[in-house]
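Regression test case RT-17, inverse folding.

Input:
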C-alpha cells in the first residue's frame, strides 16, 4: 500500500468454539452412561419414597401408643437420612435426563436460591463421609441473605464433584480441610471451594477441564468437564488456582 508492506493481524476470541467442540467430544458417551444411571437410581428414589411413607405411618402409630415409641432423635435422624436420599436421587435422575438429551436445546430449571440453604444442603450430604476420613468441612456465606438465580440440582452437582475431588486431594494431609465460601463480588455471586491438599501441577492446569483428561488412575475425567458445561449454561464461569504448599481454589462465578 503506497509502496509499503503492511502486516495485518486479526484477533478473534475462539473460546466459545473450543467449548462447543469439547462438549461434542463427550456428549455421545454421556447419553449411554446416563441411561445406565437412570436405570440404577430410579429404584432408589422409589424405595426412599416408600420408606418415607412407612416412617410417617409408624409415627402415627407411636402417637397412639407413646410407650412403645423409639428414641425421637433416632426417628429424626432416619427421617433426615431418607429425605437426603430421596432429594439426591431425584436430583441425579434429572441430572441424568438432562445430559442424556445434550444434543437438544436445554432448559434450565431456574429458581431463586438462598446460598445459605444451598450450602446447608451440601453440608448435610457430604459431612458424614468427610468426617469418616477426618476431613474438616467449613461453610461460610457473606452476607447471610446472599441469593442467586440458578438450577439448584445442577449447581449442587458441581459442588459435589468439586468436594469429592478435594477429598481425594487432602486425604494424605495432617490436617485436611475443605472450605466452601460464598460471597458477592462486583454484582456477581462467587462460590469458592478451597482445600489444603496436593496442588495441581502448573502444566496440567490448562487441561483439567478437557473431557476425559485425568491425572488419577481411578478418575474418569468427566466431573470437571461437566462442571464447566453447567457453569457455561448458566452464563457463568469456573476458574482454578493452585499453588504448591498452599492448596487449590476453584471459583464459581454466577
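Golden output:
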Amino acid at each position: 500500500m503506497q509502496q509499503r508492506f503492511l502486516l495485518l493481524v486479526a484477533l478473534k476470541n475462539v473460546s466459545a468454539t473450543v467449548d462447543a467442540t469439547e462438549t461434542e467430544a463427550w456428549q455421545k458417551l454421556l447419553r449411554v452412561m446416563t441411561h445406565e444411571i437412570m436405570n440404577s437410581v430410579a429404584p432408589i428414589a422409589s424405595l426412599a419414597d416408600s420408606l418415607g411413607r412407612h416412617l410417617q405411618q409408624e409415627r402415627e402409630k407411636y402417637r397412639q401408643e407413646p410407650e412403645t415409641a423409639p428414641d425421637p432423635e433416632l426417628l429424626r435422624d432416619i427421617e433426615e437420612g431418607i429425605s437426603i436420599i430421596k432429594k439426591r436421587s431425584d436430583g441425579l435422575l434429572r441430572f441424568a435426563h438432562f445430559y442424556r438429551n445434550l444434543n437438544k436445546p436445554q432448559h434450565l430449571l431456574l429458581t431463586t436460591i438462598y446460598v445459605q440453604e444451598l450450602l446447608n444442603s451440601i453440608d448435610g450430604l457430604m459431612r458424614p463421609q468427610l468426617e469418616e476420613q477426618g476431613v474438616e468441612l467449613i461453610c461460610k456465606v457473606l452476607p447471610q441473605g446472599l441469593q442467586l438465580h440458578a438450577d439448584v440440582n445442577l449447581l449442587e452437582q458441581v459442588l459435589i464433584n468439586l468436594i469429592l475431588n478435594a477429598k481425594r486431594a487432602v486425604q494424605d494431609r495432617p490436617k485436611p480441610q475443605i472450605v466452601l465460601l460464598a460471597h458477592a463480588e462486583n454484582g456477581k455471586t462467587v462460590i469458592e471451594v478451597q482445600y489444603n491438599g496436593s496442588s495441581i501441577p502448573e502444566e496440567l492446569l490448562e487441561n483439567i477441564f478437557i473431557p476425559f483428561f485425568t491425572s488419577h488412575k481411578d478418575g474418569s475425567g468427566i466431573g470437571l468437564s461437566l462442571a464447566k458445561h453447567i457453569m457455561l449454561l448458566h452464563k457463568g464461569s469456573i476458574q482454578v488456582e493452585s499453588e504448591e504448599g498452599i492448596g487449590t481454589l476453584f471459583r464459581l462465578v454466577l
